[in-house]
Specification:
The structure is a single chain. The protein has strands spanning 12-21, 29-38, 42-45, 48-54, 60-68, 75-81, 86-90, 98-104, 111-122, 133-144, 148-149, 153-158, 166-172, 180-184, 190-194, 202-208, 219-227, 234-243, 254-259, 262-267. The protein has 291 residues and is mainly β. The chain has a four-stranded antiparallel β-sheet, with no helix packed on it. Strands 4-10-9-6 form a four-stranded mixed β-sheet, with no helix packed on it. It has a four-stranded antiparallel β-sheet with strand order 11-13-16-15, with no helix packed on it. Strand 1 and strand 2 form a beta hairpin. It is flat and about 75 Å long.
């Protein structure tokens, strides 16, 4: 058996477990514990830089450190980002090594931003790499979200013969008030009641038009909430209406058992009698000694 460990993008101590399954009746499963330490020349802390959720135009900074195992052998030649909205600001860095602030200048479009921090450095040349040029990449992420916070998806599941109503709550990231102007769509299935604002919260009660209606065939659709927010005057909310899945009968005759080839389906004949537990037989008496 050959085990290969891919060390790209990893550093420090590492431990893994390999489980070997065989037809050995004594040891059908054998666990092999592997451990070691990956030594790298240049590394970044943290390995992945996340700015989390930011509002439109919001600026932010995150600290990071560039480390070199042996500055005499490894020289930083460049530090670049593939998105001009990010910029490395040195704090205590010398010759590329040390502490930085990764600054984000902000974005006007909603959505996820995925960027890369690329560090190029010189290492002693080898037969595999005669130029000695190496590079290290670190992931940089940010998510630009709207000012409004609300549930983007609602699920109505029939339980105990009915559908419960739900409150759809709108708040503002900066704590400003939110005013609901109206709701469009889904009139066939949902009824909306706009409540008076509760401080900075705006609430819409959402309930089914006909809770007794059968939804064996699930319905998936959307509706639009109109607000006084300039950046997001229309908010789209997806919804699902469905019956609760039937509970599995623990006495069912059929069950699935996963195996190496896929799934093995086993079925007990319908005329098979139920198993009856019988009391254990008393132990046999010990043979008497022969005079």
């Amino acid at each position: 058996m050959k085990a290969t460990l891919h060390t790209a993008g990893r550093s420090g101590k590492l431990s893994k477990r390999v489980t070997v399954k065989s037809n050995d009746p004594v040891t059908p499963e054998l666990n092999l514990d592997l451990s070691g330490e990956i030594v790298v020349d240049v590394w970044v802390e943290p390995r992945a830089i996340s700015f989390g959720q930011l509002g439109k135009g919001e600026q932010a900074q995150r600290p990071l450190t560039v480390n070199v195992a042996d500055p005499a052998k490894f020289k930083i030649t460049s530090i670049m980002l593939d998105d001009e909205r990010f910029k490395m600001v040195p704090e205590t860095a010398t010759d590329g090594i040390g502490s930085y602030q990764l600054a984000f200048s902000g974005a006007s479009e909603l959505g996820a931003i995925n960027s890369k921090l690329v560090i190029t450095y010189k290492a002693p040349p080898t037969a595999e790499n005669p130029t000695g040029e190496e590079r290290l990449e670190a992931i940089v992420r940010a998510s630009i979200v709207s000012d409004l916070r609300y549930a983007k998806n609602l699920s109505f599941i029939k339980r105990d013969g009915t559908f419960a109503s739900q409150d759809l709550v709108f708040t503002h990231r900066a704590g400003n008030s939110v005013k609901i102007l109206g709701v469009e769509g889904a009139a066939e299935h949902l009824r909306f009641t706009i409540s008076e604002a509760e401080g900075t919260r705006a609430v819409i009660k959402v309930e089914l038009v006909d809770p007794s209606r059968s939804y064996a065939q699930a319905v998936r659709d959307k509706f639009i909430v109109k607000t006084d927010n300039a950046d997001e005057p229309e908010s789209v909310v997806q919804f699902t209406i469905a019956e609760a899945p039937a509970r599995r009968d623990p006495r069912a005759n059929t069950f699935d058992r996963p195996n190496k080839a896929g799934v093995l389906r086993m079925e007990r004949p319908s005329n098979a009698p139920d198993l009856q537990l019988k009391p254990a037989l008393p132990p046999a008496p010990a043979p008497s000694a022969t005079p």
